[in-house]
Write a structure and sequence with these properties.
Helix content: under 10%
Mean pLDDT: 93
Number of strands: 35
Distance between the termini: 32 Å
Structural class: mainly beta
Radius of gyration: 21 Å
Number of helices: 3
Largest sheet: 5 strands, antiparallel
Strand content: 35-45%
Shape: globular
Length: 440
Amino acid sequence: MIRILCSAVLILISIVAQAGDWPQWMGPNRDDDWTETGIVEAFPEGGVTYRWRKPISGGFAGPAVVGDRVFVTDYLKSAGDNKPAPTLRNELQGRERVFCLDAKTGDEIWKHEYECNYTISYPAGPRCTPTVDDGRVFALGAMGDLICLDAETGDVVWSKNLPQTYDAPVPLWGYAGHPLVYENLLICMAGGDGSAAVAFDKDTGKEVWKALSTPEIGYAPPTLIEAGGVTQLLIFHGMSLNSVNPRTGAVYWSEPLAMAYAMAIMAPRKGGDFLFAGGHSGKSLGLKLDASQPAVTRAWQGSKTVGLAPVSGTPFVEDGIAYGIDGNGLFRAMRVETGERLWSTAKPVNGQDNDRRGANEGATFVTRNGNRFFIFGENGDLVIARLSPEKYDEVSRTKLLDPVGVGLGRSVVWSHPAYANRCVFARNDQEIVCVSLVAG
């Protein structure tokens, strides 16, 4: 009996150990590395199994999954016209909402909502995936409403409006830099004079430090790297790529990298001793990281034939090679050390295997699982592929969601999925779904 009981306990521990969380944008470490095992090698011919599907309103914010709970945000419009012109600010009335759902059923556990009038372009809804940490949910809305909620009850712990607090302009396309937890700090892109980036005490909301000035903060998230013997916080705003001390906000280094329309969107990616970032209009930059101190030197400058400049979606870097979507809609492989382009194809987004051009400013979200990748495209397809410096090798493809949003005159899904509990959790502007990816 004791042996049977011990075996049962070991099995339970094994199951718990295999169940993974996705507590923030791009996963536990913000590196899009999904470590669960027992995942499908190819999608079933008859299609994937939906464990549940629930209605939701608009938003570009992906879900976060912790334990048996899913956290996601949306926008429920009550008045105003949504005109999908890229540079036109829309005026809408409505409410932003933060949901906590049961991960097994999709049923609502709690909801927090507040009045929020939009004056932004592409006003579908919030852009930032909730960040869940130590029993708290940190949600940043499109108009800069930063809210800390109790993950169990949905009660407000603290809140503040970033544009009002820092006398900051709301970005044309809304606040989009996913909040980052570092030690006891919550780090956000805020805006205003000397407060492009701000760190708050995550428990109280009290400001701990603020740093950097820029006319526009852009849309990229605060990002951590280890380099030069220290932890560096990278702030990629509309005018430059910067490194600061994450505990104090003191600036280590800054490199000019101005984006058209301040469209710094991707999280800067590190490959070995090199770092790169890029954005709108084909602009990109490669930097050599100093091994002994937090400093950099320029390694390469992007051009029409060099570099990778994503407008939507952060590339994945493996063994010094970046895999991600370029501004012209082509999915590329690029050597981070030199900016050398190795191959390109439009297939992940539109299913067409060509190397000429894809969807303009297209979006893909690239996640590694073992020795292959799951790529979620703006067309709503989920793809399993093997990526190498030599080629793009598509293994399997399935339709996950309908592209019901509007972007640049086409139907799109522009939100990063979550991978947890051997499932994929994804949303568009009409529904959120949980799809089993358990190997049969």
